[in-house]
Write a structure and sequence with these properties.
The complex is a heterodimer. By secondary structure, chain A is an alpha+beta fold. Chain A is 43% helix and 23% strand. In chain A, helix 1 packs antiparallel against helix 2, helix 6 runs antiparallel to helix 10 and helix 19 runs antiparallel to helix 20. Chain B is an alpha/beta fold. Chain B has 6 helices and 5 strands. In chain B, strands 2-1-3-4-5 form a 5-stranded parallel beta sheet. The chains are: A alpha+beta, B alpha/beta. Chains A and B meet through helix 19 and helix 20 of A and helix 1 and helix 6 of B.
Chain lengths: 892, 144
Amino acid sequence: MKNQIRRSKMQTEREQKILIEEIIRETQSFASLKKMINSVLQKSAALVGGDKGYIVFVDFEEMRFRPVFGYLRKVNTLKKLSIGSEDEGITGNVVRYGEAEIIDNVHTDARYRGMSDSKTNSKVLVPLKYQNQVIGVLGIESEKEAYFKEEDKRILAVLANQLALILHKKIIDQAFRKLGYSFRTTYDLNEIYDTVIRCAKEVTRTNAIAIWEKDIDRNFTIRACLGLEESQTQNIKIHSDRGIISHVIAKGDFVLVEDVKENKTYAYLELIANTQLKWLLCVPMFFGGEVFGVIDIYSRRPYGFLEQEIDYLKALASQASVALQNARLINHFNRIGQSITSSQGIKKILEHIAQSALEVLYAEPVILFQYDQAANRLVPPPIYAGKLIEESGYVETFEFSGHSFAELIVRHGESLYIEQNQDIDQHPLMVEARKYIINGMSERRFNEREKTKSMAALILRTEDEVVGLMFLNYRRPQKFSQIEKKIMETFASQAAIAIKNSRLIEQLRNNEETLKSIFDGIPDPIIVTENKTDKTGSTWRIGYANREVHKMFGYDFSTKELVGKNARKLFGNQLDRLRKALREAKGKISNFETSFLHKTGYLIPISLSTSILEKDETGKIIKTIGIAKDLTSTKELEKSKITIEKLRRTLADVSHEFRSPLHIIISQLGGLKYHLDKKYSTDDPIVKKVAKIIEEEAFRAVSQMNSTLFSTVESLEAMGVNFQEDVIGNTVVLCADRFFEKAKKRGITIIVFDSVKRLPPIFYDKTQIEQVFTNLFDNAIKYSHFNQDIDVVGKDNGSTIEISIMDRGLGIPKDQYERIFQAFGRSEVLDTKRFIPGTGLGLTIAKDIVKRHKGEIIVESIPFVKDPIKIKHYEGYETTFIVRLPKNPMEV
Amino acid sequence: MAKHILFVDDEDWSVTPYFEKLRDHNVEVDLALDGDEAYDLLQKNTYDLVVLDIMFPPGEKIGRDVEPRRAGAILLYRIRQNEIPDIKTAPDVPVVVLTAVTDQKLYDDVRRLEVNEVFQKPARFNEVTDKLLALIKNGMAKPK
């Protein structure tokens, strides 16, 4: 390989020129820098008859060679040379003195540091210069000693001069090409800054970079930097009308400073005080034609920056601008998204959006309207962000005429951009709008008052709906590039989505509130449970419990005591059983019998109907809703149902036993009469009368039995209680009056005292309580002695009332107190003097009714006669039946 | 020809007073005290009218495990369905119910089997006897 290319000695000047041109042309045709340089070196070597070659570039920061390219020789060795030191090698020396050199034998050269191959003997080295500055070295080597001549030096020098710049440009070109995909879409600002720094450094080999950006208050601060005093960069703040930045803003383009330390405008000397930095290139980052940031690139190179480098850095700045804008946009809308889910309300969300527009799109002020698609109009008042020049209560007094600029824009259907060279007032829509001025509206339009020079009116639209209109006002003339318009459109659509989501969530929340208030009113207990997962694991909590739940289980509804508590508080250890049943039942269970815990610890039997509201991605149940039915009363009801069933049966039997003998009496009587009539052939009037009386009394007995017993059973059968508020005194008096005749026959007066009549109205079932007092009066009369009065007294106990019926008569022994209330249990007290009719059911029924009213009947029998004999025979007792009823059974 | 009435009631004193008057009107009467006796008599004689109680001891033929309160309905059902073997009485024989039972359901069961009249005990002597005589005399008023 080594001696493939031999020098041909012909080499006329013309031929040389052609060869050189060929080499130069080559540089244009290669895609790969490396391949291109390889070919160049190969041809260069051939030009002077050498075997190998290399090109190296100076890294002025490190004072080493980087990058390095070699042809048929290793180049890493060259990277070890330290330019300007003892170990700079011959190549380094060439850089230092800037002169081409021929070396006949490297091994005898004192500067040689052994960076060539061992076989190499002679070299020719030529500096690559840019603007009289050595930026690299081209070297051709040969194994032969003293191979190269002056002429070779000259030829290479010609080549080198042309190559220097081209190669340098090529290197920048490569960087340029990579620039397109250097910036990933990211919302991490630091990642973007790092990319900027990396790219700038790669091309310029600089070690000092600073990236500045503008605050809301128009001060520039350093957001990222390389190679500058850390402590200094934190505190620095420059207003946009100072420093190099102010020049950049004024010029609207980059500014190049040759000697920063000497420059009078340079405002941040503290940054570079201890450095060797000389050159500063300050490149602006734009949005809408407005400088929002700069990239400062410092350099120690004597020549500063190549034109291509400046182009590259401008392109870098432009890419960075877009990346930063996008990142900012993403960040802002992430935050807005969080605000939406944390339920801050639409107004707050709109404020966030307007504020974000200030920060991301650099507008001031920003005016944001909501749009009601259903009503086809914009909804005032608007939200604004930024400083208004004229604080004229603008927001509050806003009115739409139907023909205002804003409304016309929405009808127009497209976002509007009025840029620096356009007069807002000349825009056709504005001209149209000016035709209509309503009373009270200022003649000077908003843009005049606020000195708006450019404007964008963005329609905020989701797929199916226009939700708003946002005005971005700029007080300096702006020009929006395609990319910038794209960013604004992205902002607009993100804002629309945010507004739409807010509305949906607000609707949901309202629905939730409506639902909750509906649930609160339902008299059945309704519970929503949620499975919440946190650091400690997942627990089931009560997400919602209506008033009835709180009431039933003894919790305070006004403080929503149960909400948020661990569900086990209510469910106890039934929770797991319930969840299992729910899973097995595929989401819905009805009438699941279980018991819940009252706050005080006792269990209340309930029947629960529950269903799944929500599952997570893995299918695990995370929300359920359930309605409970208190089974205690049902169970009581069951019990009383059984009693009634038994009663019925018994009564049916009783009735049968009662009717049969009566029928026999009547039939026998009939037969007897018939027989007598036949035998004595008379129609004896006395016989007739007697027969009639017996027959009538038999029927009356049956009728009595029907009315007192069966109607009671029937009404109990109806099973309902109908609590109505009424004056119970009236009911008592009514019942007492019914017994007037019966009582009178025994010399008894039923006295209803005022204390009864004065009782406050309470909630009770009239029909049933009537039955209670009927039965009690009936008893009182039965067991009372002759000529003794029956006293009826009332008492108000606050939450309950009492009505006492006292008779003076046979009394009830203490051990009989319970028995008399049992079905068919009659007091065993027998009055030897008379027969006391009765079925033994009256008190049972009365007790049952009172119990349904959540009340009680108490009996007390105390002797009032001093005669011990009479007491022994239960002859002188005051028996009081006390009926105690709650004023409102439904609240017990 | 003499008419024939069958009474089915375990309480004989309820119905025996009617017999004198009925016989005086040329009506023959028989009394069955339980289901078995009813079967026997129905197989022996052709009756023009049956007066029965809803509740009486069922006997073997109706079924020892049957409740007395169901005996009447079952007997009537079998008469109507002609399920009594060798019965001499027509299945559509007029029937009068005379019972102390008050359970509406039982009444309904019986009424569904078509009866001419229902008397609830206690029933007036003349009312019952007049009705029976009328039913017998008017030829065979078919049950409704």
